[in-house]
């Protein structure tokens, strides 16, 4: 919790580092120490789209742990909450359905960049996370971790919503 | 449509305003404006930030328990639409608001009375303590405190 807040303190202009600084505390503690030193002069962090080279967390049990976005399928500037991306698996569990280096499709279920809702409010999450899907849009894994937005219903990813624990 | 409360300052968030932050443990924080959101990101505790309702309640500046607050409790069960019920509720809302406002004003008035009388008592006790102790023949030292202002009714004292 503290690590995610502190990592938000550093100003990053490109989301190349955006994925790195939003990580779970166990993995990237060294970069967190480094960014904390120049933190309080620029307190606000600019959150942008999910684009090429963005590292995202995987929010299901398909076997992958981290994927790097190769292509955002819709959108000129990048993917947002609820969009699909093409990604390459960078880190995986030893015995899982997907292996490291595989090219997969994913649906963005949590994005640190705020997304407008039709009632005028905005939602933002704590990190960037995907759920891996196949070409037809069906999730590869059987469980989804963490909260998911109900924007997925409009994008017709009903299966992910049924698997989700919390719907934001 | 639901009128939410800002997590930081406890003001109402109307539709179309504010940002909603969802943490990974699925706790949702709603903010009415970026001022509250930025304070949250700075990890400030609303109970210590003077202009928030949380601070005012904790420090006894605003009243905490009142029957008018019961009407604003969050209800998650949808009510079957009844035209008479809806009409009565709409008529009652301004009345309840007025009652709450008058009670709050009374609380503020009593609070200023209480605080000034406490100051006066502290001053008196202070001067008595600094003077030489009374004769030990009298078991307990008792004195009558005469305040120039009336002490408030006892159930409006802020609970410490």
TrEMBL record, chain A:
GO biological process: translation
PROSITE patterns in the cross-refs: RIBOSOMAL_L14 (PS00049)
SUPFAM superfamilies: Ribosomal protein L14
Molecular functions (GO terms): large ribosomal subunit rRNA binding; structural constituent of ribosome
Signal peptide positions on this chain: none
The organism's place on the tree of life at top rank: Eukaryota
Annotated GO CC locations: mitochondrial large ribosomal subunit
Pfam families hit by this protein: Ribosomal_L14
Coiled-coil spans in chain: none
Family the UniProt entry places it in: Belongs to the universal ribosomal protein uL14 family.
PANTHER family: 50S/60S RIBOSOMAL PROTEIN L14/L23 (PTHR11761), LARGE RIBOSOMAL SUBUNIT PROTEIN UL14M (PTHR11761:SF3)
NCBIfam families xrefs: rplN_bact (TIGR01067)
HAMAP family: Ribosomal_uL14
The name this protein goes by in its record: 50S ribosomal protein
TrEMBL record, chain B:
GO biological process, one term: ribosomal large subunit biogenesis
Keyword tags: Nucleus, Ribosome biogenesis
Pfam family for this entry, one: Ribosomal_L24e
Species the sequence originates in: Arachis duranensis (Wild peanut)
Record SUPFAM superfamilies: Glucocorticoid receptor-like (DNA-binding domain) (SSF57716)
Protein name: Probable ribosome biogenesis protein RLP24
UniProt cross-references to SMART domains, sorted A to Z: TRASH
Source species taxonomy: Eukaryota, Viridiplantae, Streptophyta, Embryophyta, Tracheophyta
One example GO MF annotation: structural constituent of ribosome
Similarity remark: Belongs to the eukaryotic ribosomal protein eL24 family.
